[in-house]
Amino acid sequence: MNGLTAQSLIHTEALAIDDCWNRIGVYGNKSCPLLAEHIHCRNCSVYSAAATRLLDRYSFEQDGQDLAAAPDLEHKVATRSLMMFRMGGEWLGLATGCLDEVAPMQSIHSLPHQRSRALLGVANVRGTLVPCLSLVELLGLDPTVTVSVTASQRVMPRMLIVAAPGGPVVLPVDEVDGIHNIEQRVLNTASLSGEHASAKFTRGVLPYKARSLRWLDEEQLLSAITRSLT
Fold first, then answer.
1. Which residues belong to any copy of the CheW-like domain (predicted)?
2. Cβ(18)–Cβ(28) under 8 Å?
3. How far apart are CA 122 and CA 202, in angstroms?
4. Tell me: the pLDDT tens digits for 132-172?
5. Are residues 62 and 85 in the same domain?
6. pTM of the predicted model, to two decimals?
7. Element of type H or E holding 15
8. Which residues are registered as beta bridge partners of 163?
9. Are 119 and 133 contacting, i.e. CB atoms less than 8 angstroms apart?
10. CB atoms within 10 A of CB 60
């Protein structure tokens, strides 16, 4: 725009407009011969044309701001959606892409001659029998570790229904915190150290809500689920 900003262009346009209403109109000496016909300058076509001209310039400024802001929309913060839940005394995160749904806890019916220690039995999910697996066994968690819950807390076990390669599988969990979007840059810095250095099927450990959250590797977990059912 030849070095002119939208604001300076509006200012230049305003200076170019003959503000006759301030000189000879109702805001001036009232000597305008058209006042007898229009009573007030706002009823005059000259006044209306000047106002329209300025409004067009302000509209131009807004369009310019919108165009300038458009590229910013392309720089959205990359995030990843994780379902966060608790097993015993440990908080875990699993990518929501491999989850079908979260369901209320139901009865699990044991099976004779179960194929693996991880297989708890089957549950009825909307009329279909779905195998139930133990995350304690799959992840090698300590079954003796629990968390203390006060009487005022409402903690309800849930079932995570996972979309495994061979069909849905139920993973009972002690508590569900919900789905949360975690910035990819935070996930990229997640690492394994200390007690989690040899944790099974784990991408890393994240700080979240004053907790240490263990971010599970969904591909390794799904592979372990398949092996437990074959």
1. 79-227
2. no
3. 26
4. 999 999 998 887 777 655 555 677 899 999 998 888 999 99
5. no
6. 0.62
7. helix 6-16
8. 168
9. yes
10. 15
